[in-house]
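User: For my dataset I need records formatted as: sequence, then structure tokens, nothing else. Please produce one.
Assistant:
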Amino acid sequence: MMSAVGHNTHLRLLLAGCLDLWGVSGTVEAMGEEQAEIRTLDGTIHVRRIAGGWQVTAPAVAGEPPATWAHASVGPMLRSLRVLLAPDQPHARLIVARAPGAEA
């Protein structure tokens, strides 16, 4: 069984790789057990493991409470993050890694 530190390292690496791939300037920090914060100029997004999946909490906008989504798996969680962080990226496909030999 992988330790929480191992899960956090993988989550942080996955999210940091997505930021790079999507062309988003920001940082990812592992927070506690199976949680991460994505910090960009537009605010901080929280990602955490919950019973049955993943929760994404977006920054509050114009005095409204932060929007929160729950997802059963990593794929939909990453799609939500891409919509929040890189809305200009195509929505038909989710790309989370470059093909070997592909240019950055």
